Amino acid sequence: MSQGFLLEVAANSVASAVAAQEGGAGRVELCTALELGGLTPSMALIAMVRERLHIPLYVLIRARAGDFLYNDLECELMRRDIETCAALACDGVVLGVLDAEGAIDKARCRMLIEAAGEMGVTFHRAFDMTRDPEQALEDIIELGCERVLTSGAQASAPEGAPLIRKLVTQSTGRITVMPGAGVSAQNIAALAKATGAHEFHASAKQLLPSGMRHQRPALHDMEGGEWRSDVRQVRELTDQLHRL
């Protein structure tokens, strides 16, 4: 893409990851349970996606839904997931741990980052839950992360654009600040101009209807189709970045 712009797609399946690549994404963040904000995918899913992608593959490391205050068992689980990613030749991992006061838990993050070894590390949207985003950014830089994913502490990146702009300026080339949440083909160009960011994160997903002809209305929570990244939406996003 022109001027170093890059689109990362949050993919929740093999099909989504392949669609992201076909649509022109520069990187995939693999996860499951997008409806919960994303969780760590299975070893088999990671392996199957790794076999099919020639673009960089980063894997979300998140032990459970909810907050980002993790106990020792959860941190051990995430460390082992990171080791699995390294063994499967992933390019990077996406992680984040906070303390109870809303600061970066540098000790636990450092342990996970050390497990990543030569893989790249993105700090995920746990950042948006921090009490002091400017200090949190400095802590993440100190830890050696290569980028931070953020909505600017708002529900969507367009809403958080003023803070994202401040973070881009504060980082002064020391880390990549990547807007994510609510990023679409309709707003990505304006978001790039408003923030000064060069990497963007989107799921570019659509709901596919269920192919089931037999259903039980009383069990509606187990009905429904599949959310999947859409080649057309990914291509529209990348086309917008190409025009910048």
Automatic annotation (TrEMBL):
Taking the first listed entry, what is the main subcellular location of this protein, grouped into a coarse class? cytoplasm
Q: Which UniProt keywords apply?
A: Cytoplasm
Which PANTHER family does this entry report, sorted A to Z?
COPPER HOMEOSTASIS PROTEIN CUTC (PTHR12598), COPPER HOMEOSTASIS PROTEIN CUTC HOMOLOG (PTHR12598:SF0)
Which protein is depicted?
Answer: PF03932 family protein CutC
The subcellular location is:
Cytoplasm
Family, per entry: Belongs to the CutC family.
Tell me the name of the encoding gene: cutC
